[in-house]
Design brief:
Elements: H1 3-14, E1 24-32, E2 37-41, H2 54-64, E3 70-79, H3 91-100, E4 106-110, E5 115-119, H4 120-123, H5 130-133
Parallel strand pairs: 3-4
Antiparallel strand pairs: 1-2, 1-3, 4-5
Bound molecules: tetrahydrodeoxyuridine.
Length: 135
């Protein structure tokens, strides 16, 4: 699957964002090794801290359906769903990615004119990993 195809699915997921508090609509599309795609949007809550980001929605959907082997993630977002620049994943989402993905995992960050590819190791350098700390 091309990055462009995955990005189209992230944009479609963005239209389903539930974001009445911030107004920022975010979409993600996660490609699994077997070709399955899981999409996600941000789901906000009146108790703001209960909000779930688009990336984690997609990852949790995939894991809960039995997928743990991921190939790429596309992310897009913007105020009222209008993409004016990249919408980089928050720190918690980066940490959740690190639970399942290696440092070379590509994240396609959509911007107003196309997309940039960032690896997870660039997004989360020196990240925490249980295997390294629980020996
Ligand atoms: N948001 C995401 O969906 N993904 C991120 O990685 C960053 C933030 C959402 C959460 C909230 O609904 C809105 O963007 C503004 O923070």
């Amino acid at each position: 699957m091309t990055p462009e195809t995955l990005i189209e699915q992230a944009k479609e997921a963005m239209t389903r964002a539930y974001a009445p508090y911030s107004g920022y609509h975010v979409g993600a599309a996660l490609l699994c090794a077997d070709g399955t795609v899981y999409t996600g949007c941000n789901v906000e809550n009146a108790s703001y801290g209960a909000t779930n980001c688009a990336e984690r929605t997609a990852i949790f959907k995939a894991v809960s359906e039995g997928h743990r082997d991921f190939t790429a993630l596309a992310v897009c977002g913007g105020k009222d769903g209008i993409i004016t620049g990249a919408f980089p994943p928050c720190g918690i989402c980066r940490q959740v990615m690190a639970e399942f993905c290696g440092g070379d995992f590509p994240v396609y960050l959509v911007n107003e004119s196309g997309y940039d590819t960032l690896t997870l190791s660039r997004l989360l350098p020196c990240g925490f990993s249980a295997q390294e700390h629980m020996r």
